[in-house]
Amino acid sequence: MSTTQGRNKVLKSHPRLNLVQQCNILKIHCSGTYYKPRGERVYNLILMNEIDAYFLEHPYYWVERMTNYPNLNLGNHINVKRVRWQYKLIGLQTIYRKPKTNIKDPKSYKYSYLLKIKKNDYPNQIWQTDINYIPMFVGLCI
User: Are 63 and 84 in contact (CB under 8 A)?
Assistant: First the structure.
């Protein structure tokens, strides 16, 4: 039994106070006492179990590849968005090798930062440029 269903029984069964008075005392909205949460559909539960079982064997399968897994179809076509939602709902994260972009080459020359020596006393004292290419009528000047 969920908390809202339990609260409904407690609020409706009081002998002297009606529902509005009880909600005012508890400082909750009256419409919240009538809410009954809908459970997950059976088809989604079967799909979650199937994805979870197959993901345990293949934790490196991403969403698109899991969509093509034949046992997931269960008679219907499964959309990539539905599998992505199931991944998020279950809390699955694909294991893959992350890019190593910040590894420095020990052999490469390290340029020193020359501006930390110089003081910036007045405006327009230090300038910087970065020219990657100059557009021309014919081709590029690099």
Answer: yes
Quick one: three-class SS letters along the chain? CCHHHHHHHHHHCCCCCCHHHHHHHHCCCHHHHHCCCCCCCHHHHHHHHHHHHHHHHCCCCCHHHHHCCHHHCCCCCCCHHHHHHHHHHHCCCCCCCCCCCCCCCCCCCCCCCHHHCCCCCCCCCCCCCCCCCEECCCCEEC
Give dist(CA 121, CA 118) in Å, integer: 9
pLDDT (0 to 100) of residue 67: 85
pTM for this prediction: 0.49
Q: Say which range, 53-57, 78-82, 107-111, has the weakest mean pLDDT.
A: 107-111
State the pLDDT at residue 74: 65
Query: Can you read off the two tokens belonging to residue 139?
Result: 């081709």
